[in-house]
Amino acid sequence: MTTTAANAQASPILTALRAATHDSHKAVERLTPFFRADFDRAAYLRWLDAMHGFYRVLDAAVAASGFVTHTRWQYLERSALIGRDLAALAGRAPADPPDPNGVLAPLAGMRSIGEVAGMLYVVEGSALGGKVLLKVLERGAAVTADAGAGFFAPHGEQPHLRWADYVALLERLALSAGLQQDAVVGAETTFNVLLAWVTEVWRD
What we know:
69% of the residues lie in helices and 0% in strands. It has 204 residues and is mainly α. It is globular.
């Protein structure tokens, strides 16, 4: 199940998702600490804890939606990958930051197939950028995909193949009436919650 890069570019639903999330995507990128001069192993562990808190809720929403059964998509839970990275690097379980203000609640509330498809636009898209970030992480935090940064390489050396599969799935699902708008809502919500979460928990 694959699609060409040209088809991916021409996909109306993919175009809609990119347009709807452009600003929030850039805002999240600006908040990531990997390119800061003081980024080190301790900061990386703290970042993993923060991301585990986010993805634990996201993974639960995917599971509760029935998306995997409905689409046969082989979803790889990101919180499990983060848990393994923390065990390898620090010998401990994740320490999720508290969420007293309910920042993650909108993420937990997404249940429709379309919303989850949009949510996975964020998840699977991040895997594409992971290959680039691995070089930064190796330099700043002394971690690699095989030793503490598995979260950033969920699909090995060829994340673009998994992305092509996701786009093909997205295009099939878009044939259902109303799904495109739900997918846009799902992607927008996911990016906005991630932005709010990082803003909430990542303070100097």
